Amino acid sequence: MKEMGFALVVEELIASKKPIIGHNMIYDIIYLYNQFVDDLPNTYLEFIENWFGLFPLVYDNKVLSSAAEYFGRTDLGKVYEKCLNDERIKGSGMKMAFDLRNGFKNYEGSELLSHYHEAAYDAYMTGFSFANIVKFKEFDKGKT
User: Fold this and answer.
1) Which of 5, 51, 116, 139 gives a 20 to 30 Å CA spacing to 11?
2) Which residues pair with 60 in a beta bridge?
3) Residue 132 above 80 pLDDT?
4) Averaging pLDDT over each range in 34-43, 84-93, 113-122, which range is the top one?
5) For 45-63, how does the pLDDT look when each residue is reduced to its tens digit (9 = 90+)?
6) Residue 117 above 50 pLDDT?
7) What span, in angstroms and rounded, lies between the C-alpha atoms of 11 and 134?
8) Is the sign of the CA dihedral 12, 121, 33, 74 positive or negative?
9) Rounded to an integer, what distance in angstroms lies between the CA atom of residue 144 and that of residue 142?
């Protein structure tokens, strides 16, 4: 029986050139490269050249929310809450819908803060925040 591991996921990411979206992910990037791609190069410039050759589209919500100059604190929970509750973000012409009902009943309701730091919920918050930050910045360009 052939064993399938995370290395196959990394191979698919490299082959597909799909965007990688994360939050405060520099350590994740370094770990992924060192464990599943190759030994870390001797210099940062070599690493960046090698990394972007394999993964050309990388978006870090912490960087995006900092650059947006509207979010204040940029930890994932605070960015998510601002995207979820802020009237300026909600009123920026966005008509996006996110649905967690398909098999994720424990993520419904008012106790969502208790799910912070669960991998699946953090991934959801990251995607939700990314979509809202990008849309907010697109809408807000001409308003500042």
Assistant:
1) 116
2) 22
3) yes
4) 34-43
5) 999 999 999 999 999 999 9
6) yes
7) 27
8) positive
9) 6
Q: For residue 31, what are the contacts with CB-CB under 8 A and spacing of at least 6?
A: none
- How many Cβ atoms from other residues are within 10 Å of residue 34's Cβ? 12
For the chain, the straight-line distance linking the first and the last C-alpha, in angstroms and rounded, comes to 59
What residue type is assigned to position 69 of the chain? E
Specify the pTM. Answer: 0.79
